[in-house]
Amino acid sequence: MIRGIAKGMGTTLRMLFRQKSTIEYPDKKKARSARFRGRHELRRYDNGLEMCIGCELCQVSCPAAAITVMAAENDPQNPHSPGERYAYVYEIDMLRCIFCGLCEEACPTEALHLTQEYELADYTREALIYGRDRLVNKEPSHFRVPENVYPKYDGRKAVDVL
Ligand code: SF4
Ligand code: SF4
Fold it and tell me: Is residue 157, in this structure, part of any structural domain at all?
């Protein structure tokens, strides 16, 4: 019997010094894989203009009908994005989204990006419909406005519409 207890204690002691496989969430977070698909973001070019041109391809490609895009003409004096149009309504219903990434694949300007963020819980259905205010990044990215954009972009800075 004593031998059994000693053996058990030995096992306990051995395990005490092993690296733990659990983490103290939410203080510590596990790294996601590089291809993890989490919360969406709409990126800006390095000059602040929105990369989204309101083409609606993401909406069409979404198998869950989670995306709503409504486009409007850019004011040439105060454009939101390079080119003719921008998305004046952009919504994603996170309750419908299955994080398949098809919208990201469909986006011709690489505006739409699924980030590593996965803490999306909220208390109401309404709070889980993300609009422009939560999707369009405040900060510019490293992307530069393409040279072949029509009408030709003259280098003006963006008007922030948030
Ligand atoms: S990740 Fe998939 S389900 Fe979610 S919005 Fe994009 S296309 Fe739709
Ligand atoms: S996010 Fe991309 S695919 Fe969707 S409307 Fe904007 S430019 Fe088009």
Answer: no
The whole domain housing 94 covers 34-135
Answer yes or no: is 109 within a domain: yes
Which residue is listed with tokens 């003719």?
A: 84
Give 130's Cβ-side CA count (13 Å radius): 18
Check if 58 has its Cβ closer than 6 Å to any atom of ligand 2: yes
Q: Whose CA is nearest to atom 2 of ligand 2?
A: 107
111 lines ligand 2 (CB under 6 A): yes
State residue 76's pLDDT score.
Answer: 86
Q: Is the peptide bond before 79 cis (omega within 30 degrees of 0)?
A: no
Q: Could you count the other beta carbons within 10 Å of the beta carbon of residue 121?
A: 8
Q: What is the CATH number of the domain that holds 113?
A: 3.30.70.3270
Residues 92, 40 contacting (CB under 8 angstroms): yes
Q: Is residue 27 part of a domain?
A: no
**Is there an atom of ligand 1 within 6 Å of 38 CB?**
no
Give me the number of domains the chain comprises.
1
Measured distance CA(147)–CA(144) in Å, rounded: 9
Domain annotation covers residue 5? no
Looking at residue 147, its pLDDT comes to 83
Q: pLDDT tens digit string along 76-97?
A: 888 999 989 999 999 999 999 9
Q: Whose CA is nearest to atom 8 of ligand 2?
A: 55
